Amino acid sequence: MTNALLPLLRLQGVHTHIGAYHILHGVDFDVPPGQVTMLLGRNGAGKTTTLRTIMGLWPTARGTVTFDGQAIGGDSDGKSGGQRSTPEIARLGIAYVPENMGIFGDLTVRENVLLAARGARSVDDIDTNRLEWLFGLFPALKKFWLFPAGKLSGGQKQMLAIARAMIEPRRLLLIDEPSKGLAPAIVGNLIEALRELKRMQTTVLLVEQNFNMARALGDTVAVMDDGRVVHRGAMAELAHDESMQQRLLGLSLGAHQ
Q: What is the dihedral of CA 233, 237, 242, 247, to 10 degrees?
């Protein structure tokens, strides 16, 4: 059982290289269990690379990624742990919703959800209560259950992407810029759905450029710049300090009321 006093996820001195490029330069931050941790920063700061490194899509060149006390990236003691593969990391209960959502446009909503349910050969094999819970979070999915996913709106596709990640119980959800390109009203619906996940003590690491969403959902925050974490703390503290917002992000949350 996870010790509630310890972080569910911890990055310590994480370096990541993509080809000849050194992208992450010693990233350090924790993700407490049952909370929403915001990962903020200007474009190109290294946020997406951080999520992909956690999932093992990019290997940890140096440093350690630890999930519930065990190393999943890098090596914690030189003897055990080490870099896990992406399927191994997913089997530990970590799900990733990339910025491009990763849905299959030619398949129906139903087929997209079924593909994400490991071990389910038909919808009848999926836990009925969990499916109804997801329909409660995202009613449009039930309405368009048999529609091709490619015909959904941008907001509906984003909700499908999150529902796919949650069709099985997950211990940690990594979400990359879910509000990007969405109309304000749809963003509001997405915030409410993520608030419900938060009320159910789902642990989330959320990359987001929409500061209203960051303020509404975040418990803790890590701010990145040039491949490094330059600030860690409570989201509420950042939300109430416009000078800190300007210094760290170059933009004031107060301007996004």
A: -10
